[in-house]
Automatic annotation (TrEMBL):
Source species: Clostridium frigoriphilum
Protein name: TetR/AcrR family transcriptional regulator
Ranges of the DNA-binding region feature: 77-96
Domain spans labelled HTH tetR-type: 54-114
UniProt keyword DNA-binding, yes or no: yes
Origin: domain of life: Bacteria
Length: 245
């Protein structure tokens, strides 16, 4: 009997599934049945390995984002994700064995998208410190106004991280990537005044807190304050005394 070993090895964006002895004896009846099943599941074969279609994975993660943004992580169920992705729950389980697997993959995808989007706002080579600092705030403003599902889901992951160790570690890394980007901007600038190093070390933490604070307040009480005014004042409060004009 052919043995299916599902090894969720994320080689790139592909979930790898190796079929024990199957690729050496592909003509057997049982093997053909499995291949037919994988065709239905949108899994393709390359050099003895089987890969989940990136389109299928994207479809599942998009569905998960939709459900989590509405129901929150605690209210999300595999059947809801399957229904949103327009597939059977058994089909979904072939791709992701548990809700936690989907949540971790979704968090990784969100971090990748967030980091890639940041490149549209930050350029160490072509922008001044002022422009790059403003870039962080502009990206957050865009997320709040135009990517509400992203922001709601990010906040819910923070809550989930208080009870799920794996998510907590992932989220710690997400915060550190964000803070490190701010450190890089500050370290590359020649506009920075001589300032107490402890103050400079604390700036990334303050900046991230103000950006998350904007999300928390604006999303729960939309329109209560002007985001441009908020971030203009945040820029002056945090960086006004250290950046030469």
């Amino acid at each position: 009997m052919c043995k299916i070993i599902k090894s969720c090895l994320s080689g790139g964006n592909k979930v790898v599934i190796k079929i024990g002895k199957l690729y050496n004896n592909i003509e057997t009846f049982k093997a053909r049945k499995i291949i037919n099943l994988f065709t239905i599941l949108n899994i393709t074969r390359e050099r003895g390995y089987y890969f989940m279609s990136n389109d299928v994975k994207q479809k599942i993660l998009d569905a998960a984002m939709e459900i989590v943004s509405k129901e929150k992580i605690s209210g999300t169920r595999m059947r809801m994700i399957a229904q949103e992705a327009n597939m059977s729950q058994s089909n979904l389980h072939y791709h992701f064995t548990s809700k936690n697997d989907i949540l971790i993959s979704l968090l990784d995808k969100m971090q990748e998208e967030f980091s890639n989007d940041r490149k549209n706002y930050i350029s160490l080579e072509n922008k001044t410190v002022n422009q790059n600092i403003r870039g962080f705030f502009d990206q957050k403003k865009n997320d709040i106004l135009n990517k509400k599902k992203f922001d709601y889901t990010q906040i819910d992951y923070w809550v989930q991280g208080t009870v799920n160790e794996e998510i907590r570690l992932k989220f710690q890394n997400t915060f550190e990537i964000w803070r490190e980007s701010i450190r890089e901007v500050l370290s590359k600038g020649d506009q920075i005044e001589d300032t107490d190093q402890k103050y400079l070390d604390m700036l990334p933490y303050l900046t991230v807190s103000l950006m998350l604070g904007a999300s928390l307040q604006y999303l729960i009480d939309e329109g209560k304050f002007d985001l441009d005014e908020y971030f203009n004042l945040a820029e002056k409060m945090i960086f006004g005394k250290i950046i030469r004009k």
